Structures are given as C-alpha cells and as structure tokens.
C-alpha cells in the first residue's frame, strides 16, 4: 500500500498547537497597509484559530483524522 500524502498547501498554512488546536495567519496583512488602523494591524499579528465548523476539513487535509 502506498503512503497517504499530507496536503502540501495545508501544511504550509496551518500549525497544530500542543493542546491540539489549529492556528492560521490572519489575512489582509501583506500590502496596502497605509489605510488600515494601527489597532487593526496589531490584531492581525496574532494567529487566528480554525473555526469549529472547518476543523474536520482542515484535519483531513493535515491527515490528523
């Protein structure tokens, strides 16, 4: 039997924490930052958590399920 491969794009985008939560980088942080407020940019630095409704799908991509 061949091995099942992990989705390469998912492995670059998501990180699994020690407690089993899955985090991701916030969007809209790459360019056109001048019109965004300091508060908004500061909140985008913190990693976001994958929502419970998408958790099964992301786990399947990462072969955690």
Pairing-aware structural class of the strands and helices? alpha+beta
In whole angstroms, the N-to-C terminal distance is: 19 Å
Mean pLDDT: 95
Unreliable stretches: none
Gross morphology: elongated
Number of helices: 3
Total number of beta strands:
3
Strand order of the largest sheet: 1-2-3
Q: Sheet with the most strands? A: 3 strands, antiparallel
Strand residue percentage:
5-15%
The portion of residues assigned to helices is 25-40%
H-E string: HEEHEH
Radius of gyration: 15 Å
Explain what this protein looks like in three dimensions.
The protein has 65 residues and is an alpha+beta fold. The protein has helices at 8-13, 38-45, 55-61, and strands at 14-16, 22-24, 48-49. It is built from three helices and three strands, in the order αββαβα. It has a three-stranded antiparallel sheet with strand order 1-2-3. It starts with 7 loop residues before the first helix and ends with a helix.
List the helices and strands and how they pair.
Layout: H1 8-13, E1 14-16, E2 22-24, H2 38-45, E3 48-49, H3 55-61
Antiparallel strand pairs: 1-2, 2-3
Features:
65 residues; alpha+beta; three-stranded antiparallel β-sheet; 3 helices; elongated
What is the gist of this entry?
This protein is α+β, with helices and mostly antiparallel strands and 65 residues long.
